[in-house]
Amino acid sequence: MSGAGERRSRTLPALIVLGILNHTALTGSRVTVSLYALSLGASPFVVGTLMGLYSFLPMWLAIGAGRMSDRVGVRGPMLAGCCGIAVGAVLPRIFPGLPVLFAATSLIGLSFMMFQVGTQHATGALGAPADRPRNFSLLALGYSVSGFTGPLTVGLLIDHASFSATFACLALLPLAPAAVLARGWLALPRKRPANAPATASGVADLLRNRHLRRVFIINGLLSMAWDLHTFFIPIYGANLGLSASLIGVILAAFAAATFVVRLAMPWIARRFAEFEVLTAALFVAGGAYALFPFVASVAPLMMLSFTLGLALGSAQPMVMSLLHSIAPAGRMGEAVGVRMSVINASTFAVPLLFGAIGSSVGIGPVFWLVGAGLAGGGFFARRR
């Protein structure tokens, strides 16, 4: 195998490792920011605002980031994303208090989006089209590891050290990916060839494609369910009087389930069509959300979180495989950017909306509304 071939063969495992480090910083910061804000007396609406800010700038800039990855390659945006995550995570360590959290969450969300668009673009470009479900399953499996370790680790750090130490540790994680990307050790997709189609009118064309539009809508619902679990479990657990460590364990049960189901994804993908898996994921997730208000102890909460993780963890590899199969040639980055823009629009608006509802009428109605929305999405996904 040539040197270039050897570098390409190492690209996917390296991308997975870099993604685990950055995603650990993201998931850990979400839990840390939520609990830190609550310790300062913030209301559920304020916490919802902070969680929404992770998605506000990505909501507007993800399409541009995707076009940039098509135009200039993915290495530069990914490197900038790593540096931004580190800076955003360390800000609350340098400037304690509630106001800095608004800047920190905005910067971390924007920076991770830049890294993630590049990573998904690169993963879709590796190997043959038939390899994409496997490649995205492996990438998602890595994020399951970070989804498990992030909340669990920060919960232990908060309880046994401090919020300040936790933010400092999170800021160290993106430095290794930044060094790898800066040294050029990975074979990553370069800029779009000069004769590739331009994307000036691309967004409308992509959204007019009914297959792509269907994928975007379903993925937006699944992303809403994923992010609301991260948002509401710390609030719900704090209302029940649970410690940060126990809240971290409940969130880690969700991540463990995503890991388990993604190990089984090659078997699942051989036996079920993509939309069959997505339909089942929406119905199971809707049922889990409907049951959350009826449990108030750690073990049942862990079981529901695990069930939700099984459903949502099975969906992302299928969504990404569909997206890269349907997207026009030369516009993978833009299609990924549109998907992330849809996701972040939902992620930004929903915590604000449901945070306000939770502050006024309680958290139970929020879980039921989300469950009903996911069940409706299941009926939409099963349409032929």
Structure, explained:
This protein is an all-alpha fold and 384 residues long. It has one domain: Growth Hormone, Chain: A, CATH 1.20.1250. It is 83% helix and 0% strand. The chain has 16 helices and no strands. The protein is globular. Residues 1-6 have low confidence and may be disordered.
Question: Topology, pairings included?
Answer:
Elements: H1 3-39, H2 44-72, H3 75-94, H4 99-125, H5 132-160, H6 163-172, H7 175-183, H8 202-208, H9 210-239, H10 244-263, H11 265-271, H12 274-291, H13 298-313, H14 315-326, H15 332-361, H16 364-381
CATH class: Mainly Alpha
Overall pLDDT metric: 84
% residues in beta strands? under 5%
List the helices and strands in order: HHHHHHHHHHHHHHHH
Q: By helix and strand content, what is the structural category?
A: mainly alpha
What is the assigned CATH homologous superfamily?
MFS general substrate transporter like domains
- Can you tell me the CATH architecture? Up-down Bundle
Q: What's the total helix number?
A: 16
> What is the oligomer described by this structure?
single chain
Helix content: over 70%
User: Would you report the number of β strands?
Assistant: 0
Main beta sheet = none
Outline, from the CA principal axes?
A: globular
CATH topology: Growth Hormone, Chain: A
Give the number of domains. 1
Parts with pLDDT < 50 across at least 5 consecutive residues: 1-6
Cα-based radius of gyration, to the nearest Å: 20 Å
- Terminal residue distance: 45 Å
